[in-house]
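Fold these two proteins, one after the other.
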Amino acid sequence: MKFCPECGKPLLEDALFCGHCGYRLPVLDEEKTPNNDSREETEHNEELLQDEEVKTVKELAQDEAEETVQDELEDNEEAINNNSENNIKQGNKKWKKIMLIILAIALVAGLGVVGFHYLNKKSQPSSSSTSTTTLTSKGNKKIHITLKSVEPQYSVNGEYADIDLEKTKYKWETDDKSEEAQRIVDGIKNEYFKYSQTTNLKNKDTVTVSINMSGDDYIVTGTKTFNVKFDEEHSEVDDDDRSIEERVRDKQGYVFENSDTTYLTKEQLAEIKTKDQLRIAINEIYARHGFYFKRKPTIQKYFESKTWYVKKEWLDSDSQMNWSIYEDANLKALAKLRKGNLNYDPNEPLEY
């Protein structure tokens, strides 16, 4: 049964008007008006759609948020990587700077040590040596030494001769008279000279000799030319015709002139009659090399009187000597005479 929505009275089946109050009942279009179930289903569907839309929006928002977070993470990671690379680059630059500073300090320290040793070496007297690099002198002014003349000595073989470099004498001019200049001169060795020719020379041949050497504080220069002149009939044993006393008193003489190139004979050794003669014969083998007899002043004075003697102050011990086979044998032969009646005291003065 239906009731009137206006007065609440019961209505007749299919009534269009309320019989009690005359209210016109509304006509419902069943096709257009959904029932409660349809309405509820529609509302449910709408709610589902709304839920799906809300869910879709949420998912989209979540996806967008995740993408945003991912982008931020990637941006942060890239920034971190960039910062790391920058930090590494900055660290490398920093270490490079530190290493450069350390190397600079080490270089300065090394230069300081080298400079100290150099100045210390310059401030100390240099010891004599056979090397030309030690022929230096003190002071800011260079010592100039010039070759003044050459007095060649020859080893004659018939009509030919060789220059005896060990016996050849040189004279020098210098603007400095100090002991340092003399030390430089004493250190000049035969190999420092250049000869145009030294062997198979004939009389009247022309020979040129020159020298050009320098150091921090000295200069040695000079060129001289001389004509070869020797006695073709001369023999090194001719001096044996003179007595030992005559040879000793001769400023150019030797007790045995050939004791460095030949073996002394028994006849030559028998000529020695005094201790002084034996002493000179032994020491003249040393003197030929320029030996400095600083512990034997009397024998040093004797050889300084000889024109052929050239003192080398750095040469003052037996260990520095380099004997030829002839010199070695002759020294041993002369030493045997010392064991007999000719034994002498090296510190005794000479009578000559």
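Now the second one:
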Amino acid sequence: MEHEIFSVFLGIVFIVLAYLVNVKKMVGILRGYNQERIRDKQKFIDLVSPFYLVSGAILILVPFIFSPEWSMVAIHLVIMANLILLIYVNVKMVDK
């Protein structure tokens, strides 16, 4: 039961992050990204914000659609996808 609650909570946090990054343009709240070196901030926002929105929706919906074991699987997959996105942005979207 704790995994389902954590999954829904994390999904809400991701959706709030997507809102703050896309609408309020608060890219400074995202840690791990070197905002000073990012070439095109709007392209960065257009990449990161939908990722967090979709990830949040997945984390909220998985406990209600699938069995409880899938909540932890979804959390792990979203964390791995977030790590891949972090590496991609820090390699491809920053000035050298």
